[in-house]
Design brief:
Structural class: alpha+beta
Number of domains: 1
Radius of gyration: 13 Å
Helix content: 25-40%
Strand order of the largest sheet: 2-1-3
Distance between the termini: 9 Å
Length: 92
């Protein structure tokens, strides 16, 4: 699988190193995620992972791709993905 696109509206909270702010807020995000993320989600599901564990995988992937721009910015920024209003996936 080459990857997929996630369309979501959810609350994204930020936890960063000391001295930075924690600014959770609802955002609309449309983001391409690589196939490795899809494989990790399917493997987690097949191993019996619950929704919360799968949300952690998505939060990590969205944090890297969207907020840290593939590692080019936002170093040390940890993303919490909560209060999901919807999440839609399409093959990218």
């Amino acid at each position: 699988m080459d990857g997929f696109v996630i369309h979501t509206r959810a609350r994204f909270g930020f936890a960063a190193p000391a001295g930075s702010s924690d600014d959770p807020r609802v955002r609309w995000i449309t983001q391409y995620l690589p196939g490795e993320v899809a494989r990790e989600l399917f493997a987690a599901r097949d191993a019996g992972a619950g929704e919360q564990q799968q949300m952690v995988i998505l939060a990590r992937a969205l944090g890297h791709a969207y907020f840290r721009d593939g590692g080019r910015r936002g170093h040390g920024l940890h993303i919490a993905f909560t209060d999901v209003e919807f999440a839609d996936f399409s093959i990218g």
